[in-house]
């Protein structure tokens, strides 16, 4: 949150939650978020001299977004009476400027809704048409990540990947989604459907990229191009121009013990730790969104 880090901890011995703002100099301020309870906090957004903590809760069998307004000077929280109804399923959220944006899919509407929340109120709603029923997808099968922030591996594992990159939101669908799909035949088309939602013009562009090899693959977006990784006698990485569909380059990394082995490094202070493991095909699940 700005230059500060928001941290919420479950204390031992039934002492409840402790929420603090850690400042760049290491000092911290305690925040009284007891009114939030165990409801999940979506974001904290600072605007002028106050901070809005947005959290979700059930109200009369529907999900609503509530707001706790907290003054920065004395950390006194004020619960806003107005709540915002959440349409459908939440697939991701991000903060831009002093506003909170939430991406929602409504079953059988074939569209993505983008809610813009400002000072605890619904400022605007944008709708983007889609070629598939996003709201029907299970939440755990759809992942969201923001390219401007660090991306964890689990954020880019999913049948449907939603990515925010600058002033665009990308939706990538790799089909078939399941290796064990009983409906697959020799005529099944292997393809990636890439959808670009332009946040400035509010327009939708849909492109399809076909894969001739019947092999596992996954796709992501990087610098406006579509990057596809295919397990085909090694790891084949291809780059496509989104608008023309032309292949801009391809490289094959043949299998070897070195390729199959990967290392994950972690640094805590001056200490380093290394974790090595062999994954084979699961390497696709460890590719970061920013490559």
Describe the protein's architecture and organization.
By secondary structure, this protein is mainly beta. The chain has a domain at 139-291. Helix content is 1%, strand content 55%. It has 1 helix and 23 strands. Strands 4, 5, 6, 7 and 8 form a 5-stranded antiparallel β-sheet that branches. A hairpin with a 5-residue loop joins strand 2 (17-22) and strand 3.
Task: Provide a compact summary of the structure.
The protein is mainly β.
Backbone structural class: mainly beta
Strand content: over 45%
Question: Taking Cα atoms only, what radius of gyration do you get, to the nearest Å?
Answer: 22 Å
How would a textbook summarize the main sheet?
Answer: 5 strands, antiparallel
Order of helices and strands: EEEEEEEEEEEEEEEEEEEEEHEE
Low-confidence stretches: 277-291
Instruction: Give the fraction of residues assigned to helices.
Output: under 10%
What oligomeric state do the depicted chains represent?
single chain
Mean pLDDT across residues: 80
Distance between the termini: 26 Å
Shape: globular
DSSP helix count? 1
User: What's the β-strand tally?
Assistant: 23
Keywords for this structure?
291 residues; mainly beta; 5-stranded antiparallel β-sheet; 5-stranded mixed β-sheet; 55% strand
Q: SSE layout and pairings?
A:
Elements: E1 5-10, E2 17-22, E3 28-31, E4 41-47, E5 50-59, E6 62-71, E7 77-79, E8 84-85, E9 89-96, E10 99-105, E11 111-118, E12 121-129, E13 142-146, E14 160-165, E15 168-175, E16 190-198, E17 203-211, E18 217-222, E19 225-231, E20 235-241, E21 247-253, H1 257-260, E22 261-268, E23 271-278
Parallel strand pairs: 13-14
Antiparallel strand pairs: 1-2, 2-3, 4-5, 5-6, 6-7, 6-8, 9-10, 10-11, 11-12, 14-15, 15-16, 16-17, 18-19, 19-20, 20-21, 22-23
């Amino acid at each position: 949150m700005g230059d500060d880090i928001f941290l919420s901890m479950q204390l031992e011995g039934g002492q409840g939650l402790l929420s603090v703002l850690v400042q760049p100099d290491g000092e911290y301020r305690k925040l009284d978020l007891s009114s939030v309870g165990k409801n999940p906090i979506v974001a904290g957004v600072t605007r002028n001299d106050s901070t809005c903590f947005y959290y979700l809760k059930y109200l009369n069998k529907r999900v609503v977004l509530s707001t706790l307004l907290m003054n920065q000077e004395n950390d006194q929280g004020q619960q806003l009476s107005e709540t915002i109804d959440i349409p459908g399923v939440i697939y991701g959220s991000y903060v831009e400027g002093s506003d909170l944006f939430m991406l929602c899919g409504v079953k059988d509407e074939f569209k993505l809704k983008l809610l813009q929340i400002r000072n605890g109120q619904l400022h605007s709603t944008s709708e983007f048409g889609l070629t598939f029923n996003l709201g029907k997808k299970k939440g755990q099968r759809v992942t969201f990540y923001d390219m401007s922030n660090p991306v964890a591996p689990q954020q880019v594992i999913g049948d449907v990947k939603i990515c925010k990159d600058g002033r665009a939101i990308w939706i990538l669908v790799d089909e078939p989604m399941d290796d064990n799909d009983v409906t697959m035949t020799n005529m099944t088309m292997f393809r990636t459907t890439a959808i670009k939602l332009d946040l400035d013009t509010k327009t939708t562009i849909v492109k399809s990229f076909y894969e001739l090899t019947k092999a596992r693959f996954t796709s992501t977006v990087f610098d406006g191009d579509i990057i596809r990784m295919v397990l085909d006698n090694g790891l084949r990485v291809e780059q496509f121009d989104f608008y023309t569909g032309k292949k801009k380059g391809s490289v094959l990394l043949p299998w070897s013990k070195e390729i199959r082995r990967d290392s994950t490094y972690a640094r805590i202070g001056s200490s380093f730790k290394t974790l090595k493991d062999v994954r084979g095909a699961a390497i696709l699940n460890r590719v970061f969104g920013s490559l």
